[in-house]
Amino acid sequence: MQVTELTKRYDGKTVVDCVSFSIPKGKVISLIGPNGAGKSTVMGMISRLIAHDSGLVDFEGKDIGKWKSRELSKRLAILTQTNNIQMKLTVRELVTFGRFPYSGSRVTPEDQKIIDRAIAYMELEEFQDQFIDELSGGQRQRALIAMVIAQDTEYVLLDEPTNNLDIYHATNMMKIVRRLCDELGKTVILVLHEINYAAFYSDYICAFKDGKIAKFGTVKEVMTKENLSQIYQVDFELLDIQGKPLSIYY
Amino acid sequence: MQQLCSNKFVSPTTGATISSAQFGILLALLFLPQSTLWSRALFAFATAVLGTWIFVWFIQRIRFKDVVMVPLVGIMFGNVIGGITNYLAYQYEMTQALSTWLVGHFSLVLRGRYEIVYLVVPLVALAFLFANHFNIVGLGKDFSRNLGLPYNTVLFMGLTIAAMITASIVVVVGSISYIGLIVPNVVAMFKGDKIRGTLVDTALFGALFVLVCDMIGRVVIAPYELPIELIVGILGSLIFIGLLIYRLNHGRKAVRLGSAGSSGCSASLSALEGRDRS
Predict the structure, then answer these.
(1) Per-residue pLDDT tens over the stretch A118-173
(2) Are the Cβ atoms of B194 and A90 closer than 8 angstroms?
(3) With 0-12 CB in 10 A as exposed, 13-18 as middle and 19+ as buried, what is B141?
(4) For residue A202, with 0-12 CB atoms within 10 Å meaning exposed, 13-18 middle and 19 or more buried, which class applies?
(5) For chain B, which residues score pLDDT lower than 50?
(6) A87 or A25, which is more confident?
(7) What span, in angstroms and rounded, lies between the C-alpha atoms of B213 and B73?
């Protein structure tokens, strides 16, 4: 995926300003930055949920807007902050929707196998016939990830997957992200607020500030005292834990 | 309609569909005094679909934070249309003719006057065919687009089907309020929101509910007959209040039949959830 000079304006205000970057395949890439830096908007534009004003999002040789929506949904999945599902569906029914781009409403035996595997992968077997609105936040998030796994896409985009989760569930979520990349070979792009999760679990970090990319590179390149204090405007201290640069801010 | 609007309180009554259909019938009576059942139905279809579209377009633009606001706006919108209908009916001395369609009753269902109901069959079949599409649309715009589903097309197609089914009933028997609100909600409490799995239950339970109400209506002041609208209105509003109270006490927890053991488990689960939320 190659992004060139991407721009988005809302009411004359430029939210994303001439952003260019390319997404390395088979890696975990985190988009970080302060509120209103434009990271979620970029996420929306590279997943065709938000239309861009100018620039180009080249996805596998074709502009993202020119893809047929159904075809694109077999290659790219996006989960936005849909933690507030108000519908009484069972976990299995939700995961089944992941096969919709392939089979529509007719679920084949092949689909059933894929759904079984996705549920097993997220360790949701015992909950599969429970309604999602009866599950805890962490379990619900896992059910949504299981749906994305059933969707069987090469790219997985997650908008603040750790939002509203406690430390235990958020950390588990990040471990799942790592497994999606390492075990299933997916390219995972995340919007994250906790920079330490980004530092510990991703391969690349793309830091946004004021609608522009402040820094894009490997975790080690981006996670420096100077970069972070310049992006977030607070003082940072960096520690080396298990070979990863983790930060303390105050 | 509840699924498409992602709101449990939206129904033909609270979404201006019924009052729009009545408005259409009045227009047919005014402009085509010799109108047949079919031309009245055509008018009712057009206005019901249009009214529902306007309502949904409106709630999509405004995006209320509180889910209860949506049906309230729908009721207001429906009353505005109802007001215009009444005004025009008074103006042209049509109130008497119109009252047949304002209050639902079965006493005028005779051969040659009900056949339009058969239109419902292909429409329901269509709804069943696209049931999963409607479920996905109910999960939100981003969610549907992620799965490659054209959100607006499916939304307005679904609403059109719902509005046409409603209109064809209103043309034949008049308005039966609440039924579109109560029946799906009660069924969903037991069987969940998956449309494919509950459409048949909803239809059967709805038919049974109407049948019981009709029988009550015929028995209470026999040999005379009370209009179905009256009985459904009384029973329906009572059940609706019951539903609201149940929601307040139990949240959205499913009602599980049978196994007493699981109730203790789910109670502790909901307690956990409650803690999560606080």
Answers:
(1) 999 988 989 888 888 888 888 888 899 999 999 999 999 998 888 888 899 899 99
(2) yes
(3) middle
(4) buried
(5) 257-278
(6) A25
(7) 28
For β-strands A13-22 and A155-159, DSSP reports them as unpaired
Let me know: does B145 contact B173? Beta carbons within 8 Å.
no
Contacts of residue B150 in chain A, CB cutoff 8 Å?
Answer: 69
pLDDT tens for A38-68 read 888 999 999 888 888 888 888 888 888 888 8
Q: What is the pTM of this model?
A: 0.82
**How far apart are alpha carbons A28 and A177 in whole angstroms?**
8
Could you tell me the domains of chain B? 1-175 (1.10.3470.10), 177-278 (no CATH)
CB of A119 closer than 8 Å to CB of A95: yes
d(CA A29, CA A204): 5
β-pair partners for A207: A32, A215
Q: Do the Cβ atoms of A59 and A1 come closer than 8 Å? A: yes
Residue A187 · residue A202 · CB < 8 Å: no
Give the E-state strand segments of B159-275 in sequence order: none
Interface of A with B (CB under 8 A): 47-49, 68-74, 77-80, 82, 85-90, 93, 97-98, 100-101, 104-105, 131, 133-134, 136-137, 151
Q: Do B146 and A73 touch (CB under 8 A)?
A: yes
User: For the range B239-242, what are the long-range contacts, defined as Cβ-Cβ under 8 Å and sequence gap of 24 or more?
Assistant: B239/B182, B239/B186, B240/B178, B240/B181, B240/B182
Burial letters for A31-60: b for 16+ Cβ neighbours within 10 Å, e otherwise? bbbbeebbbbbbbbbbbbbbebeebebebe
Q: Which of B133, B194, B252 is nearest residue A93 as measured by Cβ atoms?
A: B194
Identity of residue A13? K
Q: What is the pLDDT of residue A149?
A: 92
Chain A residues touching residue B196 (CB < 8 angstroms): 105
Q: How far is CA A91 from CA A115, A119, A139, B219, B250, in A?
A: 11, 9, 10, 46, 21
User: In a 10 Å sphere around its CB, with 0-12 CB exposed, 13-18 middle and 19+ buried, how is residue B248 labelled?
Assistant: exposed
Question: Which chain B residues touch A if contact means CB-CB below 8 Å?
Answer: 3, 6, 8, 67, 129-133, 135-136, 138-140, 142-143, 145-150, 188, 192-194, 196, 252-254, 266, 269-270, 272-273, 276
DSSP-derived pairing of the beta strands A2-10 and A13-22: antiparallel
In B31-135 the beta strands, taken as DSSP E runs, fall at: none
Contact A197, A170 (CB under 8 A): yes
Chain B residues in contact with A136 (beta carbon < 8 A)? 272-273, 276
pLDDT, tens only, B220-275: 887 888 888 888 888 888 887 887 787 777 665 555 544 333 333 333 333 334 44
Largest CA distance in chain A: 56
How far B14 CA sits from the closest chain A CA (Å)?
19
